[in-house]
Design goal:
By secondary structure, this protein is of the alpha/beta class. The chain has helices at residues 3-24, 30-42, 58-70, 75-79, 104-112, 129-137, 150-163, 180-184, 207-210, 227-239, 255-265, 298-301, and strands at 81-84, 87-90, 119-123, 142-147, 168-172, 188-193, 240-249, 268-275, 281-288.
Length: 302
Amino acid sequence: MSDDLAVRARLRAALAQTTRRLGEAGVPSPSVDARALIAAAARSERPLVLLETLPESFGAELEEFTVRRERREPLQLILGRAPFRRLMLTVRPGVFIPRPETELAVDLLREHLRGPLELVADLCSGTGALGAAVLDEIPAARVLAVEVEPAAAALSAENLEAAGPGRGSVVRADLTGPVPQLAAAAPIDAILSNPPYIPPDAVPRDAEVLDHDPHRALFGGGADGLGVPRAVIAWAVHLLRPGGVLVMEHADVQGAAARAAAADSGGFDLIRTAPDLTGRDRFLVARRADGAPSPGSERLTR
């Protein structure tokens, strides 16, 4: 058998075995994940059918990767990266992994914003996914990210710099308290946020989430999980310029409560819930009223 045929036979066997093992472990997409793990072990971005050689480490690395995925470690952490819109973001253990449904937030921002888009705040930035997408797709924009966890703040800075060198900055701070650097940035054109919002009694079922996403990035505080999201809304009221937009992700059962919080805060001329691509209520969209007072932050910076 020629070398290239031997490689293909080995890859077919690896794909069948890895898919079977992941399926038996309860991984939701065993074939897709198996192909990704095999490509990582092969150290190639080419389609598997085109590979003609494999590194000596292939077998050992594939076994290591497969065992980790069998234990329900997220695929993104094994690979060290996660796709988000046009980007491939760096991800690391201990930082919330960006989800595909969050990608729609950038489209909602552009749809509802009035006026220029020059300065965007990414609140509860995690990996910096939303801010990095803005820098990648809107060359004139700058991004100020706020994140409380040190590991996540460092990762946000890394991903922002990769997406838009010199146009992003990160502040490590708790949004439920004063953040002078954020207050000083007003007026802001838009605020994007995927804050923690899970209520305390809604424990995630998936091992990938429960065991690997940091709990501080999941649970939003308060009986309804909207403690941190309400802080995001309060910042939006004080920081957005007239016509500026807040787009904030929430759970599919929190649409009414999020709209009520925005209405109670005052200052918005548009408040609506936007669905994700599956039709589930997922985003609060709130636009600062044109006749609203100029942004101020005295209450939030005292």
